[in-house]
Automatic annotation (TrEMBL):
CDD domains: RNase_HI_like. Residues 1-129 form the RNase H type-1 domain. This is Reverse transcriptase-like protein. Residues 190-315 form the VOC domain. The keyword DNA damage does not apply. It comes from the Bacteria.
Length: 320
Protein backbone atom coordinates (compact mmCIF):
# COMPACT_ATOMS: atom_id res chain seq x y z
CA UNK A 1 0.00 0.00 0.00
CA UNK A 2 1.23 3.52 -0.75
CA UNK A 3 0.84 6.40 1.70
CA UNK A 4 1.64 10.05 1.09
CA UNK A 5 1.85 12.78 3.72
CA UNK A 6 2.72 16.44 4.02
CA UNK A 7 2.66 19.07 6.72
CA UNK A 8 2.95 22.82 6.86
CA UNK A 9 3.26 25.67 9.33
CA UNK A 10 2.46 29.29 8.58
CA UNK A 11 5.06 31.00 10.69
CA UNK A 12 7.13 27.94 11.63
CA UNK A 13 6.14 27.64 14.37
CA UNK A 14 2.69 28.93 13.60
CA UNK A 15 -0.71 27.73 12.45
CA UNK A 16 0.01 24.16 11.37
CA UNK A 17 -1.77 21.29 9.70
CA UNK A 18 -1.15 18.11 7.78
CA UNK A 19 -2.56 16.12 4.91
CA UNK A 20 -2.37 12.36 4.50
CA UNK A 21 -3.72 9.82 2.07
CA UNK A 22 -3.58 6.14 1.13
CA UNK A 23 -3.36 4.85 -2.45
CA UNK A 24 -4.06 1.50 -4.01
CA UNK A 25 -0.60 0.32 -5.20
CA UNK A 26 -2.05 -1.27 -8.32
CA UNK A 27 -4.32 1.46 -9.65
CA UNK A 28 -2.99 4.53 -7.86
CA UNK A 29 -6.54 5.34 -6.77
CA UNK A 30 -6.92 7.20 -3.48
CA UNK A 31 -8.53 4.99 -0.83
CA UNK A 32 -8.60 7.41 2.10
CA UNK A 33 -7.76 11.04 2.86
CA UNK A 34 -7.35 13.04 6.03
CA UNK A 35 -6.52 16.65 6.83
CA UNK A 36 -6.18 18.09 10.32
CA UNK A 37 -5.30 21.42 11.87
CA UNK A 38 -2.99 20.87 14.86
CA UNK A 39 -2.74 24.40 16.27
CA UNK A 40 0.62 26.10 16.69
CA UNK A 41 3.49 23.81 15.76
CA UNK A 42 6.62 23.60 13.64
CA UNK A 43 6.68 22.41 10.06
CA UNK A 44 8.58 19.25 11.06
CA UNK A 45 6.04 18.32 13.74
CA UNK A 46 3.28 18.78 11.16
CA UNK A 47 5.15 16.53 8.71
CA UNK A 48 5.51 13.79 11.33
CA UNK A 49 1.85 14.17 12.33
CA UNK A 50 0.88 13.60 8.70
CA UNK A 51 2.97 10.45 8.56
CA UNK A 52 1.32 9.11 11.73
CA UNK A 53 -2.14 9.75 10.25
CA UNK A 54 -1.21 8.08 6.95
CA UNK A 55 0.08 4.95 8.67
CA UNK A 56 -3.02 4.79 10.88
CA UNK A 57 -5.29 4.91 7.82
CA UNK A 58 -3.33 2.23 5.99
CA UNK A 59 -3.39 0.00 9.06
CA UNK A 60 -7.13 0.54 9.42
CA UNK A 61 -7.71 -0.56 5.82
CA UNK A 62 -5.35 -3.55 5.95
CA UNK A 63 -3.56 -4.40 9.23
CA UNK A 64 -1.23 -6.84 7.43
CA UNK A 65 -0.18 -4.57 4.57
CA UNK A 66 3.34 -3.60 3.55
CA UNK A 67 3.71 0.14 3.06
CA UNK A 68 5.68 2.49 0.84
CA UNK A 69 5.62 5.91 2.53
CA UNK A 70 6.29 8.81 0.17
CA UNK A 71 7.05 12.29 1.52
CA UNK A 72 8.79 15.43 0.31
CA UNK A 73 10.37 15.96 3.75
CA UNK A 74 13.96 14.76 3.47
CA UNK A 75 14.29 15.07 7.24
CA UNK A 76 11.42 12.70 8.05
CA UNK A 77 12.40 10.17 5.38
CA UNK A 78 16.04 10.02 6.52
CA UNK A 79 15.18 9.90 10.22
CA UNK A 80 12.51 7.22 9.86
CA UNK A 81 14.87 5.20 7.65
CA UNK A 82 17.39 5.27 10.52
CA UNK A 83 20.06 7.23 8.67
CA UNK A 84 19.70 10.50 10.61
CA UNK A 85 19.32 10.96 14.36
CA UNK A 86 16.17 12.49 15.85
CA UNK A 87 17.16 15.13 18.38
CA UNK A 88 13.91 17.05 18.97
CA UNK A 89 11.79 15.54 21.78
CA UNK A 90 8.43 16.18 20.09
CA UNK A 91 9.63 14.48 16.92
CA UNK A 92 11.09 11.57 18.91
CA UNK A 93 7.65 10.91 20.37
CA UNK A 94 5.91 11.16 17.00
CA UNK A 95 8.49 8.93 15.35
CA UNK A 96 8.06 6.34 18.09
CA UNK A 97 4.28 6.56 17.66
CA UNK A 98 4.64 6.01 13.92
CA UNK A 99 6.80 2.94 14.49
CA UNK A 100 4.24 1.61 16.93
CA UNK A 101 1.39 1.68 14.40
CA UNK A 102 2.93 -0.61 11.80
CA UNK A 103 5.86 -2.95 12.28
CA UNK A 104 8.86 -0.89 11.04
CA UNK A 105 10.05 -3.81 8.94
CA UNK A 106 6.85 -3.48 6.90
CA UNK A 107 7.44 0.17 5.98
CA UNK A 108 9.83 1.59 3.38
CA UNK A 109 10.38 5.35 3.08
CA UNK A 110 10.93 7.22 -0.16
CA UNK A 111 11.65 10.91 -0.71
CA UNK A 112 9.72 12.53 -3.55
CA UNK A 113 9.91 16.10 -4.91
CA UNK A 114 7.17 18.51 -3.82
CA UNK A 115 5.52 18.51 -7.25
CA UNK A 116 4.81 14.79 -6.86
CA UNK A 117 3.23 15.31 -3.45
CA UNK A 118 0.51 17.71 -4.55
CA UNK A 119 -2.45 15.80 -3.11
CA UNK A 120 -1.02 15.66 0.41
CA UNK A 121 0.11 19.29 0.10
CA UNK A 122 -3.41 20.30 -0.93
CA UNK A 123 -4.88 18.53 2.09
CA UNK A 124 -2.43 20.17 4.51
CA UNK A 125 -3.34 23.61 3.18
CA UNK A 126 -7.04 22.80 3.45
CA UNK A 127 -6.42 21.86 7.09
CA UNK A 128 -4.61 25.11 7.86
CA UNK A 129 -7.24 27.19 6.05
CA UNK A 130 -10.04 25.53 8.02
CA UNK A 131 -8.24 25.78 11.34
CA UNK A 132 -7.38 29.44 10.93
CA UNK A 133 -11.02 30.12 10.02
CA UNK A 134 -12.16 28.25 13.12
CA UNK A 135 -14.17 25.67 11.18
CA UNK A 136 -13.86 21.88 10.72
CA UNK A 137 -12.16 20.46 7.66
CA UNK A 138 -14.73 19.26 5.13
CA UNK A 139 -13.82 16.83 2.36
CA UNK A 140 -14.00 18.65 -0.98
CA UNK A 141 -15.73 15.68 -2.57
CA UNK A 142 -18.51 15.85 -0.01
CA UNK A 143 -17.69 12.52 1.63
CA UNK A 144 -18.71 12.06 5.24
CA UNK A 145 -15.89 11.63 7.73
CA UNK A 146 -15.34 8.85 10.20
CA UNK A 147 -12.69 9.56 12.78
CA UNK A 148 -11.66 12.51 10.64
CA UNK A 149 -11.01 10.24 7.64
CA UNK A 150 -12.73 10.39 4.25
CA UNK A 151 -12.80 6.93 2.68
CA UNK A 152 -12.77 6.97 -1.13
CA UNK A 153 -13.41 4.21 -3.70
CA UNK A 154 -14.48 1.75 -1.02
CA UNK A 155 -11.33 2.13 1.07
CA UNK A 156 -12.13 1.38 4.70
CA UNK A 157 -15.71 0.50 3.76
CA UNK A 158 -15.99 -2.15 6.45
CA UNK A 159 -14.72 0.21 9.11
CA UNK A 160 -17.07 2.99 8.01
CA UNK A 161 -20.30 1.01 8.18
CA UNK A 162 -22.36 -0.30 11.04
CA UNK A 163 -23.59 -3.88 11.55
CA UNK A 164 -26.42 -3.39 9.04
CA UNK A 165 -24.11 -1.80 6.46
CA UNK A 166 -25.43 1.69 7.10
CA UNK A 167 -22.83 4.46 7.33
CA UNK A 168 -22.34 5.44 10.94
CA UNK A 169 -21.13 8.94 10.17
CA UNK A 170 -23.32 11.28 8.18
CA UNK A 171 -21.56 14.57 8.90
CA UNK A 172 -17.97 15.74 9.26
CA UNK A 173 -16.64 15.24 12.76
CA UNK A 174 -13.27 16.98 12.49
CA UNK A 175 -12.76 19.97 14.77
CA UNK A 176 -10.12 22.68 15.08
CA UNK A 177 -7.34 21.70 17.46
CA UNK A 178 -8.41 24.34 20.00
CA UNK A 179 -11.82 22.68 20.34
CA UNK A 180 -10.47 19.23 21.10
CA UNK A 181 -10.14 18.01 24.66
CA UNK A 182 -6.55 17.83 25.89
CA UNK A 183 -4.89 14.44 25.67
CA UNK A 184 -5.53 12.42 28.80
CA UNK A 185 -2.48 11.69 30.96
CA UNK A 186 -1.18 8.15 31.08
CA UNK A 187 -3.12 5.95 33.46
CA UNK A 188 -1.63 5.48 36.91
CA UNK A 189 0.30 2.24 36.99
CA UNK A 190 1.33 2.35 33.33
CA UNK A 191 5.01 1.54 32.89
CA UNK A 192 7.02 4.77 32.63
CA UNK A 193 10.45 3.33 31.82
CA UNK A 194 12.75 0.39 32.38
CA UNK A 195 16.43 0.71 33.31
CA UNK A 196 18.83 -2.17 32.75
CA UNK A 197 22.30 -2.11 34.29
CA UNK A 198 24.96 -4.04 32.42
CA UNK A 199 28.66 -4.71 32.98
CA UNK A 200 29.68 -4.02 29.38
CA UNK A 201 27.64 -1.35 27.62
CA UNK A 202 29.28 -1.84 24.22
CA UNK A 203 28.40 -5.53 24.31
CA UNK A 204 24.84 -4.80 25.44
CA UNK A 205 24.43 -2.12 22.80
CA UNK A 206 25.35 -4.60 20.08
CA UNK A 207 22.61 -7.02 21.10
CA UNK A 208 19.98 -5.16 23.14
CA UNK A 209 20.35 -1.91 21.21
CA UNK A 210 20.05 -3.70 17.89
CA UNK A 211 16.94 -5.56 19.02
CA UNK A 212 15.21 -2.49 20.47
CA UNK A 213 15.66 -0.59 17.22
CA UNK A 214 14.29 -3.53 15.21
CA UNK A 215 11.24 -3.44 17.48
CA UNK A 216 10.61 0.22 16.74
CA UNK A 217 12.39 1.96 19.62
CA UNK A 218 14.37 5.07 18.72
CA UNK A 219 17.71 5.94 20.27
CA UNK A 220 16.85 9.25 21.92
CA UNK A 221 19.95 9.89 24.04
CA UNK A 222 23.46 8.49 24.18
CA UNK A 223 26.34 8.97 26.58
CA UNK A 224 29.65 7.23 27.21
CA UNK A 225 28.28 4.45 29.41
CA UNK A 226 24.68 4.18 28.29
CA UNK A 227 21.79 5.11 26.04
CA UNK A 228 18.05 5.67 26.12
CA UNK A 229 15.67 4.10 23.60
CA UNK A 230 12.28 5.80 23.31
CA UNK A 231 9.13 3.80 22.61
CA UNK A 232 5.61 5.04 21.93
CA UNK A 233 4.57 5.16 25.60
CA UNK A 234 7.69 4.39 27.62
CA UNK A 235 11.45 4.19 27.26
CA UNK A 236 14.28 1.80 28.08
CA UNK A 237 17.69 2.78 29.44
CA UNK A 238 20.68 0.46 29.14
CA UNK A 239 23.60 1.65 31.24
CA UNK A 240 26.91 0.66 32.74
CA UNK A 241 29.13 2.59 35.13
CA UNK A 242 31.07 2.49 38.41
CA UNK A 243 27.98 1.65 40.49
CA UNK A 244 27.33 -1.60 38.62
CA UNK A 245 28.55 -4.57 40.64
CA UNK A 246 31.06 -6.88 39.02
CA UNK A 247 28.68 -9.83 38.94
CA UNK A 248 26.95 -11.53 36.05
CA UNK A 249 23.21 -11.38 35.47
CA UNK A 250 21.31 -14.62 36.06
CA UNK A 251 17.66 -14.69 35.01
CA UNK A 252 17.04 -17.63 37.37
CA UNK A 253 17.83 -15.60 40.48
CA UNK A 254 15.08 -13.67 42.30
CA UNK A 255 14.35 -10.44 40.46
CA UNK A 256 13.83 -9.70 36.79
CA UNK A 257 13.51 -12.82 34.67
CA UNK A 258 12.93 -11.37 31.21
CA UNK A 259 11.33 -8.62 29.13
CA UNK A 260 8.54 -9.52 26.70
CA UNK A 261 7.89 -7.45 23.57
CA UNK A 262 5.12 -7.51 20.99
CA UNK A 263 6.99 -8.31 17.78
CA UNK A 264 4.34 -8.31 15.05
CA UNK A 265 3.07 -11.35 13.19
CA UNK A 266 4.36 -14.92 13.45
CA UNK A 267 6.38 -14.30 10.30
CA UNK A 268 7.89 -11.19 11.90
CA UNK A 269 8.87 -13.17 14.99
CA UNK A 270 10.48 -15.86 12.85
CA UNK A 271 12.44 -13.34 10.77
CA UNK A 272 13.66 -11.41 13.80
CA UNK A 273 14.68 -14.63 15.55
CA UNK A 274 16.79 -15.70 12.57
CA UNK A 275 18.49 -12.31 12.32
CA UNK A 276 19.09 -12.08 16.07
CA UNK A 277 21.50 -15.01 15.91
CA UNK A 278 24.09 -12.79 14.21
CA UNK A 279 23.67 -10.05 16.82
CA UNK A 280 24.59 -11.92 19.97
CA UNK A 281 21.33 -13.74 20.72
CA UNK A 282 20.79 -17.47 21.32
CA UNK A 283 17.41 -19.19 21.06
CA UNK A 284 16.27 -20.71 24.35
CA UNK A 285 14.05 -23.78 24.66
CA UNK A 286 14.76 -24.68 21.03
CA UNK A 287 13.12 -28.09 21.40
CA UNK A 288 9.79 -26.40 22.23
CA UNK A 289 10.08 -23.34 19.97
CA UNK A 290 7.88 -21.50 19.04
CA UNK A 291 5.42 -22.76 21.68
CA UNK A 292 7.68 -22.85 24.74
CA UNK A 293 5.15 -20.61 26.51
CA UNK A 294 2.20 -22.88 25.75
CA UNK A 295 0.34 -24.33 22.80
CA UNK A 296 -1.57 -21.13 21.97
CA UNK A 297 1.36 -18.80 22.65
CA UNK A 298 3.65 -18.15 19.66
CA UNK A 299 6.90 -16.58 20.82
CA UNK A 300 10.68 -16.75 20.69
CA UNK A 301 12.75 -16.69 23.87
CA UNK A 302 16.25 -15.29 23.33
CA UNK A 303 19.25 -14.81 25.60
CA UNK A 304 22.33 -12.68 24.95
CA UNK A 305 25.89 -13.32 26.10
CA UNK A 306 25.34 -11.31 29.31
CA UNK A 307 22.45 -13.55 30.33
CA UNK A 308 19.58 -11.15 29.61
CA UNK A 309 16.46 -12.84 28.28
CA UNK A 310 13.81 -11.35 26.02
CA UNK A 311 10.58 -12.81 24.68
CA UNK A 312 9.30 -11.85 21.22
CA UNK A 313 5.56 -12.41 21.14
CA UNK A 314 3.46 -12.77 17.99
CA UNK A 315 0.34 -10.58 18.00
CA UNK A 316 -1.94 -13.54 17.21
CA UNK A 317 -0.86 -15.32 20.39
CA UNK A 318 -3.34 -15.96 23.15
CA UNK A 319 -2.47 -15.65 26.84
CA UNK A 320 0.62 -17.51 27.99
Amino acid sequence: MIVEADGGSRGNPGHAGYGALVRDPGTGAILAEKAEYIGKASNNVAEYSGLVAALEMAHEIDPDCWILAKMDSKLVVEQMSGRWKIKHEDMQKLAAKARGIVNPRRVKYEWIPRELNKDADRLSNEAMDAGMAGIPWVHKGGLALRGGVAYVDGGGEAAATGPAGTPEAQAPDAQPAEALAPEAPAAAGALHHTELWVRDFAEAEASLGWLLERLGYLRAEHWKTGAKWQGADSYIVVESGPDVLDAGHDRRRPGLNHLAFRAGSKADVDLLTRRAASHGWTLLFADRHPHAGGGEHYAAYLENSAGFEVELVAEESGPA
